[in-house]
TrEMBL record:
<dbReference type="InterPro" id="IPR035906">
    <property type="entry name" value="MetI-like_sf"/>
</dbReference>
<feature type="transmembrane region" description="Helical">
    <location>
        <begin position="12"/>
        <end position="32"/>
    </location>
</feature>
<protein>
    <submittedName>
        <fullName>Sugar ABC transporter permease</fullName>
    </submittedName>
</protein>
<comment type="similarity">
    <text>Belongs to the binding-protein-dependent transport system permease family.</text>
</comment>
<feature type="transmembrane region" description="Helical">
    <location>
        <begin position="80"/>
        <end position="106"/>
    </location>
</feature>
<feature type="transmembrane region" description="Helical">
    <location>
        <begin position="152"/>
        <end position="170"/>
    </location>
</feature>
<keyword id="KW-1003">Cell membrane</keyword>
<dbReference type="Pfam" id="PF00528">
    <property type="entry name" value="BPD_transp_1"/>
</dbReference>
<keyword id="KW-0472">Membrane</keyword>
<keyword id="KW-1133">Transmembrane helix</keyword>
<dbReference type="GO" id="GO:0055085">
    <property type="term" value="P:transmembrane transport"/>
</dbReference>
<keyword id="KW-0812">Transmembrane</keyword>
<feature type="transmembrane region" description="Helical">
    <location>
        <begin position="247"/>
        <end position="267"/>
    </location>
</feature>
<feature type="domain" description="ABC transmembrane type-1">
    <location>
        <begin position="81"/>
        <end position="268"/>
    </location>
</feature>
<feature type="transmembrane region" description="Helical">
    <location>
        <begin position="191"/>
        <end position="210"/>
    </location>
</feature>
<dbReference type="InterPro" id="IPR000515">
    <property type="entry name" value="MetI-like"/>
</dbReference>
<dbReference type="GO" id="GO:0005886">
    <property type="term" value="C:plasma membrane"/>
</dbReference>
């Protein structure tokens, strides 16, 4: 009876996992389909015809044509890929300069207004982009930064989310270790760089990884702040520009876009899980 219950539970979880994986399987599968097969399968949906859409588990005639066309004959793809790197990497590096000291200060020091200030950080973190969009746009417009990469980078530099994550990890550093270092004559700077950062590296990496996934897939920010500068659009806005006639490139671009995030996820899965557990996020 126990074995049967376990089998039913395992089968149920497998089916649920399969439902999650179906879109990813379809994307990878579609990237290897020929244009005729894709047109036949997706035509009724993309062209809004009365026929029924169809999809096969494996391509009838697998081909790398879409990959060749995307990687060797689509310069716009690489421009947007570079735009993504230009907006995401400086944002993450800048967060090391702003979020790290802020998180260390919240975790290790007591000062007047600390609880109120940290509460404001949390409020800023939980506010969705739609709420702050208008005020952010007005500030950036007043600073003449709309339509430039700084319109994306600057708000990300002062994100409250990495501070919140890193504080959790810095607080776990034993106070006795800090006190022992002080007794040995270590200054605050030495303790921060030689003890705080190495022991809090899991939190730092998980915060940067979570932020990378968010910024790499950002759609609303670039659409709002770079609406008049399509030459600065990141890779996350490449897919909506693809029509039914080149659906193969859409599937291939999805695979290539997803690949970098997937590699980082596999490399830093342990840190990512720790960061999600520390932040209380789900999914």
């Amino acid at each position: 009876m126990k074995t049967l219950r376990l089998t039913v539970k395992t089968t149920g979880l497998f089916l649920l996992a399969l439902v999650v994986w179906i879109p990813i399987i379809m994307i990878v599968n579609g990237s290897f389909m020929g244009s005729d097969e894709l047109s036949r399968n997706t035509g009724p949906i993309l062209r809004d015809t009365a026929a029924m859409a169809d999809w096969s588990f494996l391509p009838l005639y697998p081909t790398l044509k879409s990959y060749v066309e995307l990687l060797f004959d689509s310069p716009g793809f690489f421009v947007m890929f570079w735009n993504s790197c230009l907006q995401v990497i400086p944002s993450l590096l800048g967060q090391l300069l702003t979020a790290l000291p802020a998180a260390w200060a919240f975790a290790r020091f007591d000062f007047k207004g600390k609880k109120l200030l940290f509460t404001m950080y949390i409020l800023l973190m939980i506010l969705p982009f739609q709420v702050t969009m208008v005020s952010s746009y007005l500030v950036l417009f007043k600073l003449h930064l709309t339509g430039t990469p700084l319109a994306i980078i600057l708000p990300n530099l002062f994100s409250a989310f990495p501070v919140f994550i890193m504080v959790k990890f810095f607080r776990d550093i034993p106070k006795s270790l800090i006190e022992a270092a002080k007794l040995d004559g270590a200054g605050e700077g030495y303790i921060f760089f030689k003890i705080g950062i190495p022991l809090g590296s899991s939190g730092i990496f998980s915060a940067l990884l979570l932020d990378f996934l968010e910024y790499w897939n950002a759609v609303e920010q670039p659409l709002t702040f770079l609406s008049q500068k399509k030459n600065l659009w990141p890779l996350s806005l490449y897919l909506p520009a693809i029509s039914a006639e080149n659906a193969g490139i859409a599937f291939t671009a999805s695979v290539v876009t997803m690949a970098l995030s997937l590699l980082l996820f596999l490399y830093g899965q342990r840190y990512l899980e720790q960061g999600i557990a520390a932040s209380g996020l789900k999914g």
